[in-house]
Every structure is written in C-alpha cells, then in structure tokens.
From TrEMBL:
This is Uncharacterized protein. It comes from the Eukaryota. Pfam families: TPR_10, TPR_8. InterPro entries: TPR-like_helical_dom_sf, TPR_rpt, Zinc_finger_MYND_domain.
C-alpha cells in the first residue's frame, strides 16, 4: 500500500494512514466510537503464565472482536442510510478485518460486511469496487448451504442497484424481483424490509420511462409504510411498543421523500396521491419526535385532502385528527 504519512493518535491507540483524508474518514466513521475497544486488540498482549490463562485470554479477545464487529456494522449501516458513504467504508472494513480473523476467509459470517462495503462504494459511484465485493459475497453464498434469505435479499438488492446505475435495466429488474422474493420468504411481502425492494423496482421502471409501473411500485411502498406506522403509533400510544430503528426510520424517510417528489412530478402537487405521501411522511417524522417536519408535512397533506375530498370526508378527518394530536403534544404544559 501507500506509505503512512499521517498518524491518528488517541489515548487508546495510534494508527497510521496514507493521507489526512483517510485518517479523518476513519476517525469520524468508526474509530472515535470504538477506540477504547480497538486499542487493546491492536496491542500485543503480555506473555501468559499458563495454558489456562492463554485460553481464557483468547476467549476474551474473541468475544471483544465479536462485539467490535457488531459496533462497526451498526456504524456502517448508519452512515450508509445518511448518505455518508466515505465514513461507512472504514467501519465496514474493520468489521471485515476482525470477522476474517475470527472465522477465516470465505465464510458466510463475512457477507454482511462485504455487502456494506459494496453498498458504500455504490453510493460513491465506485462501481468496480462495488461489483468486486458483491462477487465475493455471491461466491460465499453459492457455496454455503442453508444461508439466510435475508442475506440473499440484500445481495440481490445491491446487484440490482449496481446494474441500474450501469443502465443494465433488465438485469436490474431480475435481481430486484429476486430480492423481493427472498425478503418475502423471510419477513413477508408486506413488511417494511421488503418495501426497499419495491422502491428500487420503482426507480428502475422510472429510469426506463415506464412511469405507470414505477408509480405502482411506489404505491406499494407507501401502503406498506402507512400500515406499519398506523400500527406502531397506535401501540406507542398504549404503552411499550415494537421499535423502529433509527437506520430503518432514516431509510423510510429517504424512500418516502423521493416518492413524494416523483408523485409531484408525475401526478401533480395537489393530487391526492401526493397528499397521501406527505401525510405518511409526516407520521414517520412524528414517530421519531421530529415535530416541526411532521407538522409541515401534515399541514400540506391536510390542504390537499380538504381541496380534493372536502373537510367532512373520513380521510380528511383522519389527517386533521393526527395534526391536532401532534400540535397538542407539542404545546408546552403551563
């Protein structure tokens, strides 16, 4: 590799990089959160006095590595969802590095890190690197019996995004159809995890100028998220409820925001479908306590519903009630 010109120094460790940019990406991407765990792993251990102590120390190191892998994967996923792809790469690379040290080369346990590296490189438009990681992941899954449908789904989704970005639309559609199939086997066709596949299918159809097909896929995504949010918000009001992760919520906001823009372009800013998108996006902001964004989206939706359906229509009244509850919750208690 390139010569190390920059040193990243913390109380827990010192690491050398070829450039300040790489050092900054690594620090911001993952090291600042895991330095306290990473430092001891990179420091040569003292000599053990007995076989029992060596075994105990080995087991402790392996457990630490597994915890570090989970932390790195979480950070990489968070950066990818936020579009900070250059920060996701070092986090995923550490997950791959320590996964390889535990499990060895070519093991299925490495596939999540390979997929994360592929997705980050796709985001940076580094198609060659992305395809290389996807090919490695695909080879591992091909030779692994009974691997999870979740991994198969993620692999197909990333291949679909790669082919779409290269203008290979028919191949992208086949990969994304497989993605939806495997995700449906895993969690069902109406699950928010599966909605990402429908969304990518919609994007490919839109790129092919098959607008009706694209809008049909977007309708499916919106419907899935509405049912999910109606369920979790109702459960949240009644007490402890199943949680939407920050990463999944960010993914939902990104998808629904893009669908809102597409609906505005294709059917108009005052169309009922546009109002529906705005309302559901408002519900998702509400779930995560983002009150101002939620109010703005619901106000826009209410105006469209009142104009299209009238103030007394049950759908309009549902939006008005949601907005009223949101405003009531936002008002300070005297």
């Amino acid at each position: 590799g390139k010569p190390a010109l920059v040193s990243l120094v913390s109380p827990f460790l010192s690491i050398h990089f070829a450039s300040r940019e790489l050092a900054t990406h690594a620090w911001e991407g993952v090291i600042r959160k895991v330095a306290h765990v990473l430092g001891p792993l990179l420091t040569p251990p003292p000599l053990a006095s007995s076989e029992e102590e060596r075994h105990r120390r080995f087991e402790g190191v392996q457990a630490t590595k597994r915890a570090l892998i989970a932390m790195c994967r979480d950070e990489a996923a968070r950066h990818v969802v936020q579009g900070r792809y250059e920060l996701a790469i070092p986090a995923a690379a550490y997950a791959l590095r320590f996964g390889t040290s535990i499990y060895g080369e070519g093991r299925v346990e490495l596939v999540p890190a390979l997929l994360m590296l592929a997705e980050a490189n796709l985001g940076l438009l580094h198609y060659g690197e992305a395809e290389s990681y996807l090919t490695k992941a695909n080879w591992v899954l091909l030779k692994t019996a009974n691997c999870s449908n979740a991994l198969r789904s993620q692999l197909r989704r990333n291949f679909g995004k790669l082919y779409a970005s290269q203008g290979r639309y028919e191949e992208a559609l086949r990969q994304l159809a497989d993605d939806v199939y495997y995700s449906s086997l895993m969690v069902g066709p109406e699950h928010i995890d599966t909605s990402g596949g429908y969304f990518q299918l919609g994007n490919v159809f839109f790129a092919m100028n098959r607008v009706e097909n694209a809008l049909a896929m977007y309708d499916k995504v919106v419907d899935i998220w509405y049912k999910c949010l109606a369920s979790v918000l109702a459960a949240k009001a009644d007490g402890p409820a199943p949680m939407l992760s920050e990463a999944k919520g960010s993914e939902g906001i990104e998808m629904l925001s893009q669908i809102l823009k597409r609906r505005e372009e294709c059917v108009g800013e005052t169309n009922l479908a546009t109002g529906e998108s705005s309302y559901i996006l408002g519900l998702l902001h509400q779930y995560f306590g983002e009150v101002q964004q939620a109010q703005a989206r619901m106000h826009a939706a209410l105006g469209i519903y009142e104009n299209r359906l009238g103030a007394e229509h049950h759908s309009t009244m549902d939006v008005a009630k949601s907005l009223e509850q949101l405003q009531g919750a936002a008002e300070p208690v005297a």
